[in-house]
Amino acid sequence: MNTVLARIQGSHNTLARSLGLVVFAGAVLFIASEALGAYNELQLANGAYYFAVLAGLTVLTGLSGQISLGHGALMAVGAYTVALLIGNEHWPLVPALLAAVALTTLVGIAVGAAATRLRGPYLAGATLAFAIGLPALADKYTGTFGGENGLVVNPPTPPSWLGANFPLERWEAWIAGLGALVVLFVMNNLVRSGVGRSFRAVRDDEIAASLCGLRVGRVQTLAFVLSAACAGLGGGLLTVVLQLASPGAFQLELSLSLLTAIVLGGLGSLLGAVWGAAVLVLLPSWTNDIAHSFSLSTGVSANMPLAIYGLVLITAMLVWPSGIQGGVRAVVSRVGKRRGPRAKGAAP
Amino acid sequence: MTRFIDLTLNGISTGAVYAVVALALVLTWRATRIVNFAQGGMLMITTFIASSVIGTSGSYWLGFAVALVCGLVLGAVVERALMRRVESGPPLNAVIVALGLLILLQALAGMIWGNTPRSFPPAFSIRGYDVGGTHVLFAPNDTFTVLVVIGVAAGLAALFRGTTIGLKMRAAAFQPEVARMLGVRVGRMFTLGWALAALVGSLAGLLVAPAVFVGPNQFDPILIFGFTAAVLGGLDSPVGAVVGGVALGLVLSYVSGYEGASLVTLAALVILIAVLMIRPGGLFSSTQERRV
How large is the ipTM? Predict the structure, then answer.
């Protein structure tokens, strides 16, 4: 009886905490979108769909221990689904996004089932081949997927009750932000539930986990499917925000930068995924600004952003081996320790 | 029939290059359990250096030799200065550092040599052999490529099986702690492994440069297919790297010859998945045991 009560209480707490987190994040997003200009609103929208993808990927890699270099391709599946459904079939936005999630879930089941047999670099190789192989389909079936140029969709129209002059960028930021909040809610609940614990158990010791009655293959496939669904949603939101799904956006570089973002942000942590999304959105524009602030020859300044990006990756990994979130946590705990004894001493 | 023979010969010579890159990746994997994605950038730098040396001195073989020496040094420096700090950490951190290095090297090459790809001379003639009045798609330079692959594979096998230093390298990779207790300078063996790998990698750059030209991003496909070949053959097996490379080269050559070049990457995916579903550790995986 006691355990049942504790369980209910525990799950209730997690649910309440997740809801509180989502409300808080939603309020921050709302205030930010009201305060920002059009360019930053677009960045916010970009960050939101990146977060949707990264949250799934960080759970997959950080919690269940599977590496994936193929999530860019999964994003492409979601992006093209939304582009085809909205552009050709004139579906409304929400059903199109749900269809994108459903389709990538199916693809995720296929890829994830294959992935459970593979470990480490072999999984990396297989998913990398997936990332470079899938965009070839867009070339092969040019009639359906628009070839190199991709598919263009009309921008979403803000509802009339928001006023005639409601900026499009803000509406896009709201849509993408809402998608990110849904992912945040689901994932935050999940990582603290039995499912999340089973992911960690499988990551830490497969044999011990299977002795405890967990079906390792199923748990790993589930993790892959969840992250695929997140990637599908993120890809679909990308189409909505950019109004374009083209093969150029889903090259191997995208998959690699997604992996980079979750490690740089802090592997396995949803806050780390927030950092990662911020890095993906802000770093390119910052490195561009830095490169152009020096008066360099064109050959050098054209390559400067890349050079800074490479340097940032290397130094970040050497300085914060557990990512930005790990660094933040270390600072917070050091400050907490310094305060701790004093607080105790002050209260006799 | 002649088309089939041409595609086969073409597949063997491109596959040989994938095999060399795969060998370089296998060497770093065996030494330090790191997949070195920066290999593509390192071999790009050494090939650029070779291009500059050939341009100023006019001697192909001088540039060739300088590139190999630079590869050796670059590999050792990268291991000592960067990878040593992340070798013991989480495996993904090493991957990210390697990716960062790849990006940094590509940017540096663009700054120094410009982003426009430049041509690169072949070691020998690239005019196909004359067989019964027609030129087949196999030139003296391709013979050279194949011979280099065989030579590198045989040399590595001799090194690892037949010499004390090779034995020490295997011991350091297999059981670092025990090897250290037995007096093996484990750190040095890691450095040596990376230096050798970078040497082999720079060889791959020199071999493939006449076909793909030299530019900051020109070697990306070679790295990707080299990695695919290494995974196909099994990352622990040099023989697997060679077999995987040639097999991949052949399949991709047939696919692009008969079905069109756009399907090449899809074919690589299909063959990789097909092999890994049957042998999850690659064709030449020695153990079925899982590392947990």
Answer: 0.88
